[in-house]
Amino acid sequence: MIDRSARPSSGNPSRHLPSAFTASRRTLLQTSAAVGTGGLLAACTGTGGGEGRATTLYTTGLQDGAPTNFNPLGWTAAWPVGNFAVYLYETLLNFNLLTGEAEPFLASGLEWADNVGTATLHEGTTWQDGTPLTSADVVATFRLADRNPGIGYGDIWTYIESIEAPDDRTVVFTLDPQSPQRLRLTDLLCFTYILPAHVWDQVADDALTEDPNLEPLGSGPYKVASHTHQDVTLERHDDYWGNEVHGKPVPEKVVHAIYEGNDAANLSFQNGDTDVSAHFLPRVNELWEDRGLPVKTWDTAAPYHLPGSIPMLIINTVEGPLADARVRRALAHAIDYAKIAESAMAGMSEPAHASVILPQGAESVHFNAEAAAAGWSYDPAETARILEEEVGAAKGGDGVYVLPDGTRLGPFVAATPQGWTDWNAALDIVATTATEAGIEVVTEFSDWSEVNDNLGNGAFDMVLWYVSDVAPSSPWSRIRDLLDDRDVPPAGEMAFWNFGRFHHDAVPALLDEAATAPDAESATAAYTQLDDIIRAEAPAIPLMYRPLEFFQFSEKNWTGFPTSEDPYCAPMQGMTGIQILSKIKPVEQ
Predict the structure, then answer these.
(1) Are strands 276-277 and 93-95 parallel, antiparallel or unpaired?
(2) Element (H, E) at 142
(3) Which of the four CATH numbers 3.40.630.10, 3.90.76.10, 1.10.1520.10, 2.30.280.20 does domain 2-16+90-206 have?
(4) Bridge partners of 441?
């Protein structure tokens, strides 16, 4: 039993979701040194076709550079560990992006009685070395976060009072009665890899997040067979405990090819040398519409991919003219969302609505279309009206508004990491259209760590960044990340959510109401009120929609991937377990 009345520091609370989501968000679109690199890599990895293509699936886009570790507790784990393609390590529950439900995985389910959640492991769960996987491993996994504060799921103690293992198959989670937050606990059960105690109990406390774990032992259907600077190869574990429960995967091997740039990777995919790509591939529809290639995505109509995240323009609400909600609302009306969707996202996003709730997929039940339509939209005339009539500003000779006290509206710096190409393009559009409307915005693209540090410390005007993606707790987790200032330090100290230091008296109670709502209708009412606060105050502005992973596939060698016409699971490698790999079939050559 774990029972903690005095809880440890929780590590980095910003790590609410698996690192796969971070990887898919950043999607570094670096220019290849030479397109020929793709051909060289294909030759080395054997992706050119022929013998082995009926037994080997090739993927790309989820691993940049040579793998250095497979540590599920660290921050830089290689595919498939760091990208949450759960082929090696597994979780108690599996999140279904399409339905929003937490479904059985290692556990057959999670049953609630008041504030107590009981997870029951499937019969026969084992580690790949044949050792039984029991509830003691589950308890030991969560105890690891007590031993090292750098482990991301340590904030479980914010929400639970104890974890008990009354027998080998049962794990009992008792919520903190002061914060009975089922949503966040469900997140953690879906996104925390269960690890073998007989391996990790032997690792020193201070090494838990640093151990390279180059011979990882999991419970899943694949083992790491080899890894080089060119690829990571997984080999099927034929004695997988879940063959009868979840289905036996078809590919004997899964190979993640590693390319030096997007150009080489996309060329390899178009040639059919790789079967699944998570790279940002602009105008993907032209591959089947104009070139007749056997390439597909989730949908044949725009935006082609299933959205799962909302990159946000997060605004510093504490200092300068942007501390005025009227100025922020004026800015929200000065952004051309349709142009961002069409140009920066290459048509692979709808224009963003005035809502931080996704209008498609699992969150759509809470999306209030009428309220969103009544919020901001691209309307420079409305920008002028707000600034002139509500604020009393006047446009200067250079076209930029000046406040009554003489403060000029700009230049404000809009930052995001260099190399996040679609995000860079989106910010360029923000800067151009906002400046044309009279609010001067300039862009700054720098190193990820610099942007991250400035954001956390509140040293920014506005930053295009990610917040919580679709998960069992969304949209609660996303709204909490944007609005909740409980436990958020002042500017100058590192924050892990609410980077803009926004405050509104009604937010805490509404968030708690949404988290404990007895039904979806009650939760939607609370979420709409929170969304209304965002529409009125504009502490953050949604710019576009993105999938959790870009997922385009070639049917040259394999068929049977999920689509909107055959939605047997979400179109992504992360969180789908072996649902895709047990469904696909090799194409007869």
Answers:
(1) unpaired
(2) helix 135-147
(3) 3.90.76.10
(4) 412
